[in-house]
Design goal:
By secondary structure, this protein is α+β, with helices and mostly antiparallel strands. The chain has four helices and seven strands. Strands 4-3-2-1-7-6-5 form a seven-stranded antiparallel beta sheet. Strand 5 (113-121) and strand 6 (124-131) form a beta hairpin. The N and C termini lie far apart (75 Å). 28% of the residues are buried.
Length: 154
């Protein structure tokens, strides 16, 4: 039996199989991980409740967000990789392109923000936003991004 396995490893079909199977397996695992983190963090809930319609932002701050946090599940943060956009009516949260298949952009209307909690991690100042329709979720953005959004609102 080991002879037939060795013959397969030396055949051109092995490398063809490896070249095709590995990227497909990697994409399958990557998609599964993105799907799980979107579900467990609550990102999918926010994207469903507050869909982004494509409204153009007046200002953008790239690397302005910290992530979406469900109570007691802080592992799904984006660690500053989110782009935060500001319009006159709300805040746009966009993840990096590679994460968007299961983490679509969403829009947080100012009138639906019910609480803001300051948080400092190392030397970074964040604001954790709580939305009216999703009180168990917190959206972390840099304080400077929140100030930019408030300035665009004026």
């Amino acid at each position: 039996m080991s002879g037939s396995l060795q013959e397969f490893e030396n055949s051109p079909y092995f490398w063809l199989f490896f070249v095709i199977a590995f990227p497909l397996l990697f994409l399958a695992i990557w998609s599964f991980v993105l799907w799980i983190t979107a579900r467990m963090s609550g990102w999918n809930v926010l994207a469903r409740l507050y869909p982004y319609s494509g409204e153009e932002a007046l200002k953008w701050q790239h690397r302005g967000g910290g992530g979406v946090y469900r109570a007691h599940l802080p592992f799904a943060g984006m660690r500053g990789r989110l782009a935060v956009g500001a319009t006159k009516t709300g805040i746009i949260i966009k993840p990096p392109f590679i994460l968007r298949p299961f983490h679509p952009a969403f829009f947080l209307p100012f009138d639906k923000i019910v609480a803001e909690e300051p948080l400092t991690i190392l030397s970074f100042d964040f604001v954790l936003l709580t939305m009216q329709d999703a009180p168990d979720l917190r959206i972390g953005i840099l304080t400077s991004a929140r100030e930019m959004a408030e300035a665009a609102r004026q």
